[in-house]
Amino acid sequence: MGKKKLARFRELNTFERVIQPPFEEVYLRDYHLKGNWRKELFKNDGSLILELGCGKGEYTVGLASKRRQNNYIGLDIKGARIWTGASRAFDEGLENVAFIRTRIDFITSFFAKDEVDELWVTFPDPQEKNRRRKKRLTGASFLNKYRLFLKDGGLVHLKTDNRSLYVDTLALATYNKLPIERMSDDIYSGQWSDETVSIQTYYEKRFLSEGNPIHYLCFSLPAQQEILDVPDGVE
To answer: pTM to 2 decimals?
Structure first.
């Protein structure tokens, strides 16, 4: 591991709002801030919004700077990436931003029923191989995890350059009759002006430079409805 990366890991430990719990604290156990993020960390009653697989935290920090009345948490397993977002949030004096370094598989250890208002999934690994599709962050298994802590009817936002992921997620939402709030096969071909287009990640800028369209889907997730996989042969 390079000296620069080691230095970033050391600095990461100094940020008040970067949470890095050991494996044994979250595996099949509740983290001590579960249900109390607003009260104990942010010390306000603002909405709580998560970015999953946040990478460098561009969306987490971008959203937080635009809507300071809300609280934002980015989750990722890569500490070197989180350092970028945490450093920017610190430099900009954003007190409504936090990061959790963990595997998203453990997400239910961190958040209690109805604690989270919205989820953003920005440019996730599309997991295109058939044997990997169950690991998609917008797949049925993960959506059923989100139901345990997302408020009833809370929003799930997907932004991706991968058409297969977009189409499959739309098919899953349609099959389960999840209310579609907004969608676009190419968000930059319309007249969008909100955070959907005004915040661009490193990967998004790269995809755009290569001429790839960016897809967006936003749907509501009912807390009491089990999400089922689309059966083979159903379109």
So the answer is: 0.93
